[in-house]
Specification:
363 residues, alpha/beta, 7-stranded mixed beta sheet, 6-stranded parallel beta sheet, 26% helix, globular, binds zinc ion
């Protein structure tokens, strides 16, 4: 049985749109560019809110040359929500219609390789291959624009209870849940988290969703104060050795699980050092250089270290939890800017004294 596409009278689309173009590392321009055209099984979405991610800041600085993005000029942005403005061929067969409210995520994987078939599409073995795999805002045009094209695999229907602002934070919330999942948080666990940015703070909520008995956040400054305000125990690494502090808080035993969300080498080392014997660390932060790991302890205490890349299947799972206030995305939002003031928004994001955690941009 085939499903008849819903008919909708769509307003005519403009030929051009406003977009944030990274001309070369650290050179940003707001430009008028052509509105992209959705291909087979893709939609064109009107972006209503896009949020600034730490990855955007790195990518704009040119920290991943030749990879994210493959070349400049480039339009970044991958945490967004909006509504469908046009359908490419075949998209209606998946139930999509013009006007549907959606949240986007970055990975649009091949769906065919062994990792995709196993549900681990974040590890698609055809990553970046033309026509098989896209990662929006990383190797394909992103959502820092009035419109963006996405494949149907990377859009998720927003429930009525979630706003576009909430929707722009579903992608980072899904990554936070994937981090807690990869950490294998079990009921009653003590979970230590390094890096109280958006992912770290949301990972605290996700650890609780999985039944953590106690969440200890390691950080400093305004972000650590935010962690305390959200009800987590805190350790200020500026006040002394954070590993000793976590051990002191856990009767000398250490944490069952560590979630590394800072992306700096010291934090990876702290996480491994503060684990209880047999503990597990899931690392979502990406250090720009290698990290020396205390292998003797890892071997003899049977520690586990798991990488975490984006999310894989958690977009839909986090939505009801966000609706119920169990994953507190709204608490993350500190600033809002129009797309035309992106440079100011990014400077605010990069300035730790601004108190910025999550900055929302409206194209
Ligand atoms: Zn992101
Ligand atoms: Zn694949």
């Amino acid at each position: 049985m085939s499903v008849a596409p819903r008919t909708t009278s769509a307003p005519p689309l403009p030929a051009t749109m406003e977009a944030l173009v990274v001309v070369e590392p650290n050179r940003l321009e707001i430009r008028e560019v052509p509105v992209p055209v959705p291909g087979p099984n893709q939609v064109l979405a009107r972006v209503r809110v896009v949020s600034i991610c730490g990855t955007d800041a790195h990518l704009i600085r040119g920290d991943y040359p030749g990879f994210w993005p493959p070349s400049f000029p480039f339009i970044p942005g991958h945490e967004w929500a909006g509504e469908i403005a046009a359908l490419g061929p075949g998209a209606a067969r998946y139930g999509w219609a013009v006007g549907d409210r959606v949240a986007g995520t970055s990975h649009d994987a091949c769906g065919v390789c062994q990792k995709c078939v196993e549900g681990r599409y974040n590890l698609c073995e055809n990553y970046g291959k033309e026509g098989l795999h896209r990662q929006y805002g990383h190797n394909t045009q992103g959502a820092d624009a009035t419109y963006v094209v996405h494949g149907v695999k990377s859009i998720f229907r927003l429930p009525d209870g979630l706003s576009f602002e909430d929707g722009a934070l579903i992608d980072p919330a899904s990554i936070a849940l994937h981090t807690a999942n990869r950490g294998g948080v079990a009921p009653g666990d003590t979970v230590a988290i390094t890096g109280p940015g958006t992912i770290g703070l949301l990972a605290g909520d996700c650890a609780r969703v999985r039944g953590a008995g106690r969440v200890i956040v390691v950080g400093r400054g305004d972000r650590l104060a935010k962690a305390a305000a959200l009800g987590f125990d805190t350790v200020d690494y500026g006040a002394g050795d954070p590993v000793a502090a976590v051990r002191a808080m856990t009767g000398g035993l250490g944490a069952d699980v560590a979630l590394e969300c800072a992306g700096v080498p010291e934090a990876v080392q702290w996480c491994l050092a503060l684990l209880r014997r047999g503990g597990r660390c899931a690392a979502v932060g990406i250090p720009v250089r290698g990290v020396e790991v205390a292998m003797q302890r890892l071997v003899l205490d049977e520690l586990e270290l798991a990488g975490v890349r984006a999310s894989a299947g958690e977009m839909r799972r986090v939505m009801p939890l966000v609706e119920q206030g169990r994953i507190r995305v709204r608490e993350m939002v500190t600033h809002r800017f129009p797309l035309g003031r992106y440079e100011e928004a990014l400077a605010t994001f990069n300035d730790r004294s601004s108190g910025a955690i999550k900055i929302l941009v409206a194209p």
